[in-house]
Structures are given as C-alpha cells and as structure tokens.
Amino acid sequence: MGVVGCGVGGMAAALALARRGHAVTLLEAFAAPRPLGSGLLLQPTGLAALKALGLDEAIRAAGARVDRLEGRDTRGRRVMDLDYGDWRPGAHGVGIHRAVLFDALHDELSPEGVEVVTDARIVRIESLAKPVLHDQHGRVFGPFDLAIIGDGAASTLRAAIRPASRAPIYPWGAVWTNASDPENRFAGALRQVYHRAEVMSGVLPVGRGPDRAENQVSLFWSLPVADLDAFLDGDFATWRDQRLTPLWPEAAALLAERNDWAGFSRAVYRDVSVGRWNRQACVLIGDAAHGTSPQLGQGANLALVDAVELAARLDRDLRPTAVVVRAWQDQRRRHTGVYQLVSKALTPLFQAHGAFWPLMRDLFFTPMSRWPGLKQLGVLLLTGALRLGRFPPETRP
Ligand SMILES: Cc1cc2nc3c(=O)[nH]c(=O)nc-3n(C[C@H](O)[C@H](O)[C@H](O)COP(=O)(O)OP(=O)(O)OC[C@H]3O[C@@H](n4cnc5c(N)ncnc54)[C@H](O)[C@@H]3O)c2cc1C
Which of 206, 226, 294, 331 fits a disulfide with 39 by CB distance 3.0 to 4.6 angstroms? Predict the structure, then answer.
C-alpha cells in the first residue's frame, strides 16, 4: 500500500494497515515531517480510533481532560455551555499538543515496519488502477494495490482523482499560539469568548508540550483571511493590551511575558467538496476528502476514524479493492457529511461581520445549552458521535 502525507490521517492509515500485516510505504513532502498548528481537541470518536491503534492511554496521559465547552459574549452572557457528561457519564474530550499527537503516531511507524520516505512531494499519479507515484526528484514508488492520498485540505493530488473537486478557502482564518498556564486556570474546558461574530478567541488546555512542559494551552484569535498579513505585521503589545485584555484579561495574562508574534502561527481552512473520494485504486482520506472549518473541532478526529475503519474493512471484506474502498466511503460519508454540513452552517454564526449572524447564534445556542433534548443534540454533535447509522466495532465511541 502507498500512503501520501505524514499528517494525522496518513500516519494513522499507515499504522493501522501495517498492524494488519500490509506492507506500507508512507511518502511525505517535508524533508523532516512536522506537525502544523498548535493544539487539537480529540473527541470520544478520535479517542476510540486511537484506542484501536493502541495509543489512547499514552495520549490521555500526555493531554488534558476536557469536560465542557463554554462560550460567552463580551457582556458575560453564556452563549454556549455543553458538558460531555450530558452525553454519557464520564465522557470527555482530550486537548493535546499537535506535536505530541504527531510523535505518538510517528514513533510507531518504523517499529511496525512502515517505510517512511521524506522529501518526497508526490507530483503525479500514474495508473489509477495500479497506482505508481512520482515525486519531485523523479523518484518512482509503486505500483501499489491501493494509494491512500492524505495530503491535506490544500491537496494538489485531489484533482487527479476527482477533477471536478473544489476546495475554496474560507473567508475567515485564525492565529494560534501555545502558552504556559502554570496555575492550570484553564483546566477542564475549551473556553471561547465572542464579540458579535467579528471576534472569537479561545483557550484549549493541551497538557504536556513535546518538551514535557506541563499545563500548556493553545490560544486562538480568529480574523478574516484578508487581514491576516496586516494583523501579524501590526504591533503585538497593542493587540494584547488594547484588544485581548479588555475582552478576556485572563487569556491576555497568558501572554504577559511576550513581546512579539514569535510562536504564533496562522491557519486558513478550506471547504472541500469532492463527490466520491476514490477513483479505482486511489482514495482520498482526511482533510483531502472532507476538510472543513474547525468550528466543531472534528477534522483530526474524522481523519483518525477514516484510517482505522478503512484498514479494518480492507481486512474483512475480500472483494476487489476498489469495491471495498467504495463501500468504506459510503459508510464514512454518513459521518463526515453530517459534520461538513453542520460546520458550514455554523461558521457564519461565529465568524462574520455585522449583527445578524451573532443574533442568530444567540437565539439558537443559548436555548440549546439549556433545554433538554436540544442540549443533548448539541452535546452529541460536540462528541463527534453524530452519524447516520452505527459505528463499526473498531471505532465505536
Ligand atoms: C487552527 C486549526 C485548529 C484545528 N483544531 C482542530 C481540533 O481541535 N480538532 C480536530 O479534530 N481538528 C482540528 N483541526 C483540523 C485538523 O488539523 C485537520 O483536520 C487534520 O490535521 C487533517 O489531517 P490530514 O492528515 O488529513 O491532513 P494534514 O494534517 O494537513 O497532513 C497532510 C500531510 O500531507 C503532506 N503533503 C501535502 N502534499 C503532499 C504531497 N504532494 N506529497 C507528499 N506529502 C504531501 C503535508 O506535508 C502534511 O504532512 C484544526 C485545524 C486548524 C488549521
């Protein structure tokens, strides 16, 4: 099997396949594979997939338990208040530093026999039925029984498989950074603060960093993509003291020692729409197949579930590979489709100009956080477990 992309989806697919006895070659564009972004919220679904890979305990030990999602506006009103325990007693998410999740997956690859080839940017797929992959240096990999393409939301290979696919960039993006929270004041919840829908800031506890420093958090600040460059060219202290502090003094205090934007990264999101995910023996996985805004915090979780379910189905379904892959994606789309649709519908409620969308948000979410039934639906959505049909045993949360 050939896997393209050393992201969450590609590494999980390579590992799950290798554990089931397949010979796997993983091809990554970067010379030294590295995680992008800062923190992630793993949901019960993603944790179930990590359990199937034997990694959940290490991840739970390194990450930070998240029991609630809280969102308030600048007047202090609770817009969102969702508790995982309302789904199932004891249920929770885990905030994790991306580099820690990356290392947990990456460290397992070589011991499981996965051949990892770096500095291999795949630029061409030859023969979709028996794929042969060509990199930028003219190296050739394959032929493979199956090529799993996990090259992310900005995939350059997607068009070779689905020429009519689209992946426009969302008009809103974000800047992110990690910080230390020595007193653990942000423990237990993903907290967000909104000013209308023009400003959204959040703090997620992520546990240990890759350097083993304890009580790390990820902080984000959302803004229009068109303003990202000007924002990061602006003065850091002015933003912190004049914009973040009045909105959320506790979050600003996390950055008290900083003098500049060092340690911040920018994020843009794409709304990926591809139709079918495969052509013959080439299949898209993760963000390359169904990338969306991270509003519901599901992208990495969906990629993990994609990977584990694909490997399990290839194992138990003995029909030709293209048929098996088709059956797998029919099942997966009953899950990913729900989250793509809802993410798309919710994004303007949190990231938009003007007063209309935040008003809709307050009308929709404030009761959702209080009324039984609606509240349960909100929590189910948060856990990642909303799926039309059942989860197979290997990923059942
Ligand atoms: C700011 C931000 C916050 C997020 N928060 C959350 C969250 O809380 N929870 C959550 O579940 N998700 C979250 N997400 C989404 C999550 O990060 C993605 O859904 C997830 O990383 C997708 O994984 P992937 O493996 O599909 O792609 P990626 O992680 O993008 O990996 C793609 C890999 O492919 C490689 N590659 C690209 N092109 C080629 C090529 N031609 N040849 C070889 N290699 C190639 C890249 O170098 C990269 O290593 C967030 C995203 C962002 C941006």
Answer: 206
